[in-house]
Amino acid sequence: MKVKGILFLPVCFMFIICFASFPLIGQTPFDSDSTVSANLKKTKSPGSDSQISPSEIDNLRTQSQQNQYSGEFGTKLLSPRVLRGNVKFTDDTKSVVRVPHFEKILGSHGCKVIQINKVKDKTKGGFLGIGKRAFLNVSASLEGKDFVIQKLVRHYGGSVGNEISKGSSTEGAEFSELVSAEQQSVKAEVAILEMELEIDKLLVEFNNQGTLSIGKKNEINKKIEGLRNSIVTKKSEIAGIQSSVQQGLFDLGVSALNANDFEKAISLFSFSGKEDNSMKFNMGLAYKGLKNYETAINYFSSINPTNNGILLNIAESQHLSGKSWDAIDSLLKILSVFQNSKEQVEALNKLDEWKYLQSSEFPGLPEKASKIYVEKAIIEGSTDDYKRGVSLKTNVESLQDASNKIVGEFQSKYSISQNDLAAARRKSSERFNAERSAAIANLQNSRREYDDAFLRAESEYRYELDSLDSKLRRARLKLADLESEYAKQRPSGNTDPYGGGSSGSSTDPYGSKKPNSSTDPYAKKPSTSGTTDPYGGGSSGSGTDPYGGTNTPTDPYSSGGGVTQADLDSARANVENLERSYRRFISEKDRFISERTSSAASKVKLAQENYQRYDPSKQNQYVEGSQDVVHQKAVVQVNKQRLTKVQGLARSSGY
To answer: HEC profile for 419-447?
Structure first.
């Protein structure tokens, strides 16, 4: 098995311990593109002279079981001394914050709680009980790591009890650096515990501050926050140490694997706690070395049963366990799409190495192997591989016959691909014609829709034009009626009912001969009369007033009823506006229709553009550019090249 060296650099508390290079680690198929041999390396790896005895492995297992008091800060090689202790304290903080903080410390450091009691009570308070405050009396019986119990008792109060178990440290030169790393991890855990206990002091101090001590409370909160941040940093350092110790144990397992100490390798892999693909692969190798092939296959298959490097190891385990058909099936999976990779070449060699090709127990396998050897010959241009493929050809009378049959198979593939290309072109041409017919139908439909929309628009236009014309005619008739009525109100055509007189004033039938400035030469107008009516001021029943009595609506001098000049002006303006609207509507006929047919016109345009794509002159371009034809042309080209190479190999091989 090919291996590679790695440098183990654990992260330690406050400083970095530089570890020496550990034994070589087993290379997995997912580490690089290199081939992974199914055979284990037989020579000892560097560092294998310092062996781990079976008793030390047993000690590791025992120690792992004893570390039930690890909490967040577990160690694998250091087993702590375990003590029993009793802790007692009073939590009289306002929100009872010490108790949950205490319980969090116990969980974090792996303390086992045998018993815990929390008794509520209250202070007596002052006058009339004013100032009473609730508190908790806490007592706990614990088991845990010696330094944890001792510091809890010293801080909270109580007593240290009996020893439950002695502490121990894994011995052996191989473990020394890992043990040193875990010792630094323990120191970091002690520092964390001390910071957690300091936070408890600050919680009490915060509780003792008065309501107005805002500045002091803020200062305490900042200290607590700073300690918590430091704890996070220390936990990160411990996590780095734990990870590096885990990797170190795994590397020791690889060293044992390279030395063919399979049981030791399995113990170290298991004890390391790693669960990634690298661990699974090396566990598979170790179990294969122990001839526990079923377990090995399970480990390999749990990684990626389609990976060629993994399949090689699965195939070897199947072969060694006597499951020949399963092994052949795994090898053929590797060889299914032959690309001459290292794993595929090794798998092909295994068919010969394991005597599968020489056995009559596996009918059909030589024919499959023949095809693979010919593929290898085409890729490498090797006449030896071609001859090997010819020799494995079945159902033939001679090597010449076998070679001719192989060349004929490639010729057949080439011919079939040409036929497939012709079929693809026919289908593409038929698809072009079908799409062209659909484009024509779509264009015709869109044009019909446009014609319908145009007719509707013209109908709407005529309707609105007729409506405007009707309004205009009514307005003109109304104007004519008003003008006629207005004319009837003025018999002589002026403002004097006696108009048409002498050359004098148009409002005076007697012209300039009137003796005074009034309009009535015969009488003075009554002082109440301010009109120009010569009969003004008289009795309404005067018989001398042609407009008296019931004739007032036709009286040109009356201020009520009748047609006015304003009425005429309004009617004329209405006619002019309607005439302008009518003329404008006639001039905007095209715009009116265009707005109502724009959607249908757009469909016609798109349909026309789509139809143009299917012009008969573009059919060949369409066919040759279709995906199926392009793909099939590539297949034809490849098959032509392969046929040419096989023909050349046959000639070079003397067939």
So the answer is: HHHHHHHHHHHHHHHHHHHHHHHHHHHHH
